[in-house]
Amino acid sequence: MRRIILKKEYIYQGNLILVNGKNEIKQNSNDCDLKQYNNVILNYNVVSELEKILKEINNQNQIVLVSGYRSLEEQKSIWNNSLKENGEEFTKKYIAYPNCSEHQTGLAIDLGLNSDKLDFIRPAFPYTGICQRFRELAVQYGFIERYKENKENITGIANEEWHFRYVGYPHSEIIQKMGFCLEEYIN
């Protein structure tokens, strides 16, 4: 594992930063402390908490890290490729527009149940087994399931069972107990 320091990148700092279609990332000249973990780059604190939860659930490569930090260029590429391959309706439903993606903060992680056919955009992360165990413990480590069912009209993104966002504890517990999405919590 190596540490990566990005300078003058489009990154916010702070665990509660709201990034969505109405709240774009603004240029920040501060350094963002990122770390590579299992071929995915994430905020250094996110890696620390993710390592702890995966150890607690005794993950033996059953859950894989699909996507973490993305540069603006990478987010543009994912958006454009999805438009070509999947069309506008699908892309708007599952892919955040460049500079509107939480992945550009280093605080978001997409997880998948390890399989031969892992989908990069919509990886399977069922509400059973080890995935459910991760979900149940995630709050204690500062993670929330970011895009829940019945919140699409608020978040602007369809239900994504695989997308988790680090907000820190106790924010994660309050968000879960209140049944909020991040937009509701910040408001």
Count of alpha/pi helices: 7
Instruction: Tell me the strand percentage band.
Output: 15-25%
Task: Give the neighbour order of strands across the main sheet.
Answer: 4-5-7-6
Give the biggest sheet.
Answer: 4 strands, antiparallel
Molecular shape: globular
Query: Compute the gyration radius: what is it?
Result: 15 Å
The helical percent reads 25-40%
The arrangement of helices and strands along the chain is: EEEHEHHEHEHEHH
Distance between the termini: 37 Å
Describe this structure in words.
α2 (72-86) packs across α3 (88-94). The longest helix is centred in the middle third of the chain and has 15 residues, at 72-86. The protein has 187 residues and is of the alpha+beta class. The protein has helices spanning 44-56, 72-86, 88-94, 129-138, 152-155, 171-178, 182-186, and strands at 3-6, 32-37, 40-43, 63-67, 108-113, 143-147, 160-166. The strands form 2 sheets. It has a 4-stranded antiparallel sheet.
